[in-house]
Amino acid sequence: ETFGGDHLAQAQLLALLHLEIVQERLAAEFGETVEFVLKPCWPTERLAEMLGRWVAETGPDMVYINVTAFPFAYESLPLRFGRILGRFGPAVGDAGLRFADSKRWSHNVVFRKLRRYGQATLGGDTHFTCEQVVERVSDAIRVALRSEVVFLVVEGPLGRGEPELTRRERRRKEARRQVVHQALKSLCEQLHVYYIGSDSPLPPERQHVSGTTVGDGTHFNAAGHARLAEDLYENIRGAWLSRLALEAPRTKVGSRKD
Q: Contact 168/76 with Cβ under 8 angstroms?
């Protein structure tokens, strides 16, 4: 149930390299060995089941669920054509997805401009609805909480944004983000889960920084993953300090407030 493609494989490799840096920094911070187990996946109906199996297999001290906006906010033209073209839809949609995943085309400036024009004028279908994401992530949160020894952290969608969006597109995507963010924020408050999120979208200078993506303009390169790694370090550090504070209330520790 992990998602594939050349770009994602490259992105996962870069993420793993930068996770090593985060591990080393956290180990130095807390004076003990830190090891990450990365499990990329879609918010499918099997998400909660898979998370429960991973927790049982690896026995982690912390489970960090990172809910990105892509599954419910990115508008795909191939998915839209696949839905509206009837019996020809699946073939057309699959072909479009293959084109989008090909470096030859996704790095092509003309192809990217045509895709952006189509997304801005025709729109596209998302891979999942907001309701599906909320329901399945909520189920996964409850499954993770069955383990009394696991400290659960949930990072909601922060709205890192995409380049060259129109105002209408930004409003539409932000409305979807708010649905997922507010629902997960409320659930985590009810269940006393450490939640990282923002009621406002990230400022423009943090949404899409020039020089942080590969040739397709979407997937992060080494510089982009370095920025994400810094955010991850601060998030995990703040969450773990919060846990230590709960275990030893009289000990003063710092924390990060989002």
A: no
Burial class (CB in 10 A: 0-12, 13-18, 19+), 32: exposed
Whether the CB-CB separation of 120 and 166 falls below 8 Å is answered with yes
When computed from its CA atoms, the radius of gyration of the chain, rounded to whole angstroms, is 19
Q: What is the mean pLDDT of residues 71-78?
A: 81
At residue 185, the 3 state secondary structure works out as helix
pLDDT tens-digit readout, 135-152: 999 999 999 999 988 999
Angle between helix 6-30 and helix 222-247 axes, rounded to 10 deg: 40
The label of the residue with tokens 């490799």 reads 13
Which residues are CB-contacts of 249 (< 8 A; sequence separation ≥ 6)?
none
Return the percent helix, strand and coil in the chain, to nearest 5: 60, 5, 35
DSSP, collapsed to helix, strand or coil, labels residue 19 as: helix
pTM given for the model: 0.75
3-class secondary structure per residue, 142-157? HHHCCCCCCEEEEECC
Let me know the angle formed at the C-alpha of 254 by 249 and 258, rounded to the nearest 5 degrees.
Answer: 110
The upper half-sphere exposure of residue 193, i.e. CA atoms within 13 Å in the direction of its Cβ, equals 29
Number of Cβ within 10 Å of residue 248's Cβ equals 10
DSSP 3-state assignment of 10? helix
What is the pLDDT averaged over residues 18-42?
A: 89
Residue 173, judged by CB atoms within 10 A of its CB (0-12, 13-18, 19+), counts as buried
CA geometry: angle 142, 25, 193, nearest 5 deg? 20
Confidence check: pLDDT of 190 > 60: yes
Residue 217: both structure tokens together: 């303009």
